[in-house]
Amino acid sequence: MANAILLTATAVFEIEEHNDTIIVVPTVDLRELDYQRIESGARDILELLNDPRIKHVILDFHKTDYYGTTALGFFVKLWKKVKMRNGRMVFCNVSDHEQEILQVTKLDRLWPICSSRNEALEAVKD
What we know:
- By secondary structure, the chain is α/β, with parallel strands linked by helices.
- The chain is built from 4 helices and 6 strands.
- α1 packs parallel to α2.
- It is globular.
């Protein structure tokens, strides 16, 4: 992915830009005990969506296996902001455990879940 640019790396998220899409990669499991770090990283990501060039968000979970309710709340906030700009939000590389959490909460109905980053990039194209 030659045109991907690493925008920032926090203790919790790596963020890359790919055309009109940001790719958010959680670098650690997003457990409840880390809620302050999650909230701080979430604010940074939500701030990036103030850039009019950014329309879509891909959450790539290839480095993690778990997220809790704080992270789920962040995903919903992120989705609402993306939806307001007529963008798409897509998950990729989710673990079986992460997939189960989305199914139990019925959030898997809101966001496409792709098996790879390339598939996710295709899914956000207009």
